[in-house]
What does this fold into?
Amino acid sequence: MRGLSQYLVCVYDDACCIRISHYRSSHAYQSSLPPLISSQAPTMAMAATATAAAGAVAAFTSGRRISTSHPSSLSSPFLPRAAGAIVARRRATAPTAAVLVRAQAAGAKKSVLIVNTNSGGHAVIGFYFAKALLAAGHSVTVLTVGEEGSDKMKKPPFSRFSELTSAGASTVWGDPADVGAAVGGASFDVVLDNNGKDLDAVKPVADWAKSAGVGQFLFISSAGIYTLTDQPPHVEGDAVKESAGHVGVEKYIAAEFGSWASFRPQYMIGSGNNKDCEEWFFDRIVRKRPVPIPGSGMQLTNISHARDLGSMLTLAVENPDAAAGKIFNCVSDRAVTLDGLAKMCAAAAGTTAEIVHYDPAAAGVDAKKAFPFRNMHFYAEPRAAKEVLGWTSSTNLPEDLKERFAEYASSGRGEKAMTFDLDDKILSAVGAAPVSVAA
It folds into this structure.
């Protein structure tokens, strides 16, 4: 077994951790190897793993669609225990000290760290993920960026963190660049980064997780990284924008972790969400104003209840082998048109909507500022989650919008004074302006 001085051998021990040691000679290798592994197993595992890794990297960088089935390279008749042996090339700069990596086994209760953003639409993902994990009996710590006493924490979902702590979760605040200090030296089986959008932000978390022996690293990416396609919907493996920060993160964690997965969400709704999407429609509908929608209104998009994202992530935690090395579109399994969304919002409010279509260029407005959704087909499909994790969507947009309208109504937002300058400009341009703003 010559040449093994350049490799690490990872073997599950009786404490359910992976013991990683490197061997300087074939004699040391054979005399030190536990009896649970045949002397042929490391070579075969190494070859299979190298072949699979080369194929995965080629597929990842080319953007072609790849199979979502889990590779069998980590299973072997030579490895009678659950995870077996893994052989990986030792980096030239790798330390010689042994590293403990927490084992990942399906069905085991895990300790999970959620690094959660303190702003934007993604904050609710961490909230619902924590709720799903706690309901399944896992241990949860939520590290939120910033300070507990900041004004941002007065808004949902942060203002509802008592729902998590009362169920047994721990909540801490701090800087993800120094995550070790923020969590006080606690150890975790799984880390989810639901904060960073580029490698500068995520790398400190990923590097800490690797050095701390975290067994599984998950990342919230974005379906917005897909390039335009003539064949919607977007599916896992479609070409992405190589310049996107999320792509850089996905490539980095793919190179650094044996067990990793990336999740690409789109638009979300759900109690506790603090980003205006459906509220934009409610603001106009309750005031009996026309709802200006760019284009034909037949553009397809995808809106998922945040509980669906939480359930998908939880399945990945509970099935780490199946999820390892996968990209998941973290979306519901039905599209909705922009006109359809306006009609559903009106129905949730118990009324109807007056929809006005317009050409942004002709109206002299920027659609990105005048409308909360993309003026194009923007629709992904959750094929990998269904095939690999056995996940099913629970999003029911007409019913879920009723929940959101009830919260909207109770907030008093519908009675607050608002201006609609861009709307009025659009409506004037198409000759459908309310009397109060008609020239």
Confidence is low (pLDDT under 50) at residues 1-98. DSSP finds 16 helices and 17 strands in the chain. The first helix runs from residue 26 to 32.
